[in-house]
Amino acid sequence: MDANVMDAATLIMLAVGLAMDAFAVSITDGLCYENFHRKEALMTSGAFGLFQGLMPLIGYFCGRMFSDAIASIDHWIALILLGVIGLNMIKEAWQESHEPECVECSGKTLTLPTILMQAVATSIDALAVGISFAVIHVNIFTACLLICGITFGLSLIGAAAGKRFGSMVKEKARVLGGVILILIGLRIFVEHMFF
């Protein structure tokens, strides 16, 4: 197998890793917003899934413009991008757990502009991953659909968890997502260098 081809299991793990930010925000939404019910859970999950699916596509086509020029260092690019994203997720989780903000949740209502801002903010990482997709042979449409579907599902689960368990699982989700992305970056690098 070509070391530059991402297998299905790795792609699923990558999608789960990317979805962890949306999952964590969904937990917060379920915890903090009084008007967060089934309709709002579906709206936020749909927005998160849509943006997480579109951003890699945008990154992919941007990356394709210069993929031939960087083919010899593509494994380094994937390692650096996924490593930085993963480390940033872990750092944010650590900061939130050690510097908790006093969030007053009562009376807050979730609005469409807030949902859209959250969807964009949680999907920026997926844009960078899309660039790495351009240099490692990935069926971009399958990848985007998978990322979209997994993000949607995990966001729904996060919304329900937020209603029940709140902040207990939010930081752990971000750490898990960060670790997954770092491991995938290392796997791509090792496969390209040694196989």
From TrEMBL:
<feature type="transmembrane region" description="Helical">
    <location>
        <begin position="173"/>
        <end position="190"/>
    </location>
</feature>
<keyword id="KW-0472">Membrane</keyword>
<keyword id="KW-0812">Transmembrane</keyword>
<dbReference type="InterPro" id="IPR003810">
    <property type="entry name" value="Mntp/YtaF"/>
</dbReference>
<keyword id="KW-1133">Transmembrane helix</keyword>
<keyword id="KW-1003">Cell membrane</keyword>
<dbReference type="Pfam" id="PF02659">
    <property type="entry name" value="Mntp"/>
</dbReference>
<keyword id="KW-0464">Manganese</keyword>
<comment type="function">
    <text>Probably functions as a manganese efflux pump.</text>
</comment>
<feature type="transmembrane region" description="Helical">
    <location>
        <begin position="73"/>
        <end position="90"/>
    </location>
</feature>
<feature type="transmembrane region" description="Helical">
    <location>
        <begin position="140"/>
        <end position="161"/>
    </location>
</feature>
<dbReference type="GO" id="GO:0005886">
    <property type="term" value="C:plasma membrane"/>
</dbReference>
<keyword id="KW-0406">Ion transport</keyword>
<feature type="transmembrane region" description="Helical">
    <location>
        <begin position="40"/>
        <end position="61"/>
    </location>
</feature>
<dbReference type="InterPro" id="IPR022929">
    <property type="entry name" value="Put_MntP"/>
</dbReference>
<protein>
    <recommendedName>
        <fullName>Putative manganese efflux pump MntP</fullName>
    </recommendedName>
</protein>
<comment type="similarity">
    <text>Belongs to the MntP (TC 9.B.29) family.</text>
</comment>
<keyword id="KW-0813">Transport</keyword>
<dbReference type="GO" id="GO:0005384">
    <property type="term" value="F:manganese ion transmembrane transporter activity"/>
</dbReference>
